[in-house]
Design a protein that fits this description.
Blueprint (H helix, E strand, L loop, with lengths): L1 H16 L7 H20 L7 H21 L9 H4 L3 H33 L1
Helix pairs in contact: 1-2, 1-5, 2-5, 3-5
Length: 122
């Protein structure tokens, strides 16, 4: 899981980096930066995620990301095709929120595994 979380952290950092030319770059840099930080913690210090406060925060952030995915879900037909999302900003934003939600879900799974290991060790 460390390698997967590390990979997701790098991907999210790259997503942050390519927001420089977006009209609302600051908003999307934060949106992509949050899962980058969580994935980095999961990759480098997974035991930290076993703490109650961190797990509760991660659950709330993942729920917010899921709500954001619903809000930004692309409404245009064929939004997954390159000729659509290459032109439509709303399709890219929706797909970005989907990626954020998947990333945070992987981190949440990592946190649950860390909690179960911590409970087993006690």
């Amino acid at each position: 899981m460390r390698y997967l979380n590390g990979f997701l952290c790098v991907i999210m950092i790259l997503f942050v980096a390519v927001q420089y030319n977006d009209p609302d770059y600051a908003f999307w840099m934060v949106i992509y930066g949050i899962p980058a930080v969580w994935a980095g913690v999961a990759a480098l210090r997974p035991a930290v995620l076993a703490r109650d406060l961190y797990t509760a925060g991660l659950v709330l952030i993942t729920a917010a990301a899921a709500a954001g995915t619903v809000y930004y879900w692309p409404t245009m037909p064929g939004w997954w095709r390159k000729d659509v999302w290459w032109i439509e900003e709303t399709a890219r934003e929706g797909m970005g929120m989907m990626i954020v939600t998947v990333t945070l879900s992987v981190v949440l799974f990592t946190a649950w595994r860390a909690r179960s290991r911590s409970a087993a060790a006690d």
